[in-house]
Design brief:
This protein is of the alpha+beta class.
């Protein structure tokens, strides 16, 4: 016996089909008319035999499970106004639509070229099977499938891509079963949503959006014919790869539709002459706001699981305003170029903007160049805020009822035990001011009064308030805590200051407004539920003092044409510089530093370098936004 695999395969095929071979040999020399009759008889025998074989295929899948089948779908991420930011999927990029949302021209074109007798057979087409059988017999191998649309569907859903007689019989059996359970329209709908169209695109809707930048319901006859031609060999006939070959294939489809009298000669001529405007590949395209969508994806994965996100067809409305996001990105690019020209030895920057009224994140930039570094410093980098931490201490002081903005505190030398050593806080630049009001101490960012104040009100109370404001990073009650000796993220700072801007009202800070599935069912609703978490008088007093920081303190370079409050931050090690500021409608934190914690330069301060960048962003972001004032402390009762 020959050891050649091809010979063995032919011998095996001959053994399996011996009765049919004998039948064909017997009628090998009959007339053409007789051959046609025998072919029809053979087809009937084959079809009847397949039905009988169904009994022996007891281990085949139960097609009734398709009643609950949910194909994997692409999830989409939008900004708050509905602008698409990103699509999320694995190797399958698909949108599922119902049959009525698909162009009639496309349905006819697909049926014409793939299975013109689709509506007249019961899952298998005996004539097609006979023709395929004779062609395969002549070649000694499988060269023609004879598959109906139903058979193609069950192959895609249930079977392996192997080309063998047993697989083909199983395919036919499942097709017969499928036609008993589902209507023709249901089968066609499943097929058009399941079939592969090239470039990781599955399903007619996604393919239409990719190839022609329109919905499947809007496809013309010319576009439909070109898309129908893709099914046989999607990459080969792709107009993105070989437009002329795609046009030739389109011509084949149109000719087929004309021969079937499914279109008129005029319709065919018009379709052939119609110029086609192609779209672009939609699979794995870049996000419009990668720092944002990566953060959104992380939040979704934690809540729903990765598999549900990449296959669940979610529609995610984020809190991001793409217009503000673009302004933020441009501001960071421009600001980075400016500080480098000024000789600042800093390689990175982050900016976060939060709406105080909702605690929605409106814009976020996690670095100067996402392509060079995907590390998101806005939410992942924990850095010391320096003096930008002081407002938390001052709020606690005001809320205690023991202090007012005009209360006096000593800016004089002081020492505190700190383990085996003594801690003696110093002011930036040295020197002491003696007795000073809390207002002046914060406006000038004096260190000694902040440390004294922290000891007076209690560091544990400060930490308690910070936790109330949503900061979750680890914090220890060390003596130097009021000077920012704690590691926080820019997002935490922007969100905490947003609660000051809102007068003490707080909602959960989030990147996501709402998540639905592809049918519109709500999976997550982050409608703001604000709660008053701070004392109104204390917040109003703090806002009044922090406005002084901008108008006459360390952040005069942040002045706007409207009331604004904020605080600079500069660490003693000169590794981090900040400005966190706000108006009633927007709270924004900007950080500058190096990933490796290298010092950024002697004399670098938040007021000198960061506040101007903050102002640049705010001037653009607030265009057309009405001017609002902060409510005065006199509107609220002072705490006891």
């Amino acid at each position: 016996m020959s050891s050649n695999p091809t010979v063995k395969n032919k011998q095996k095929q001959s053994e399996d089909l011996a009765p049919v071979f004998q039948f064909v040999q017997t009628v090998g020399k009959v007339t053409a008319g007789t051959l046609l009759g025998i072919t029809m008889l053979t087809s009937s025998v084959i079809a009847g035999g397949l039905v009988g074989l169904a009994i022996s295929f007891r281990n085949l899948p139960d097609v009734r499970m398709l009643r609950n089948y949910i194909p994997s779908e692409t999830s989409y991420v939008y900004d708050i106004n509905g602008t698409l930011l990103d699509s999320i999927h694995d190797e399958v990029n698909r949108d599922v639509v119902d049959l009525n949302s698909i162009s009639p021209d496309l349905k006819r074109a697909v049926i014409a070229i793939e299975d013109s007798q689709f509506f007249s057979h019961h899952g298998i087409n005996p004539g097609s099977i006979a023709r395929a059988f004779l062609a395969n017999l002549e070649e000694g191998r499988t060269v023609e499938g004879g598959s109906t649309l139903t058979m193609q569907l069950v192959k895609n859903l249930f079977l392996t891509p192997e080309r063998s007689l047993s697989r083909k019989v199983a395919e036919a059996v499942l097709a017969l079963r499928l036609e008993q359970v589902f209507t023709k329209d249901q089968i066609l709908e499943m097929y058009l949503n399941q079939v592969y169209w090239g470039h990781n695109t599955y399903g007619v809707e996604t393919a239409a959006q990719s190839y022609f930048n329109k919905s499947a319901s809007e496809l013309t006859l010319a576009e439909s014919a070109m898309m129908a031609g893709l099914i046989q060999a999607p990459e080969s006939y792709s107009p993105f790869l070989d437009y002329q070959l795609a046009r030739q294939r389109q011509s084949v489809i149109l000719s087929r539709m004309r021969r079937l009298n499914w279109i008129t000669a005029e319709e065919e001529a018009t379709a052939r002459q119609q110029p086609l405007r192609l779209g672009q590949v939609t699979s794995f395209r870049a996000s419009q706001a990668p720092y944002v969508t990566e953060a959104v994806l992380q939040e979704l994965n934690e809540r729903f699981g990765q598999d549900s996100v990449i296959k669940g067809g979610m529609r995610v409305q984020t809190t991001i305003d793409l217009k503000l996001q673009r302004i933020a990105e441009e501001t960071v690019t421009r600001g980075y170029q400016t500080i480098r020209r000024r000789g600042l030895n800093a390689d990175q920057m982050a900016l976060v903007a939060v709406d105080p009224r909702t605690h929605f994140v409106k814009a976020m930039v996690g670095g100067v160049d996402y392509n060079n570094s995907q590390y998101n410093r806005a939410i992942q980098a924990i850095r010391q805020p320096g003096s930008a931490f002081k407002p938390f201490v001052y709020y606690v002081a005001f809320a205690s009822g023991k202090y007012r903005p005009d209360s006096i505190i000593n800016d004089t030398p002081v020492s505190y035990p700190d383990g085996y050593e003594t801690y003696s806080p110093q002011n930036y630049g040295g020197g002491f001011s003696g007795p000073i009001t809390l207002r002046s101490a914060l406006e000038q960012s004096r260190n000694v009064p902040a440390v004294r104040l922290g000891q007076s009100v209690g560091l544990n109370r400060v930490i308690e308030v910070v936790r109330t404001l949503g900061i979750t990073s680890p914090i220890e009650p060390v003596t130097s805590l009021p000077l920012g000796s704690v590691d926080l993220t820019p997002l935490e700072m922007a969100a905490a200051y947003a609660t000051f801007a809102s007068g003490g009202w707080q909602s959960q800070t989030t990147f996501i407004v709402q998540v639905t599935d592809s049918t519109g069912k709500t999976l997550l609703d982050n409608t703001p539920q604000p709660q008053l978490v701070l004392d109104p008088w204390a917040v109003a007093s703090l806002n009044d003092v922090l406005q002084g920081v901008v108008t006459r303190g360390t952040a005069t370079s942040a002045r706007l044409d409207r009331p604004a409050a904020g605080k600079t931050g500069t660490t003693s090690s000169e590794r981090d510089i900040w400005f966190v500021g706000y108006v009633p409608q927007l709270s924004v934190a900007v950080w500058i530093g190096n990933d490796d914690y290298r010092p950024i330069g002697i004399g670098a301060t938040g007021g000198g370098y960061v506040a101007p960048i903050w102002r640049d962003f705010m001037q653009q972001a607030l265009q057309g936004v009405p001017v609002e004032n902060f409510p005065p402390a006199s509107n609220f009762p002072r705490p006891d």
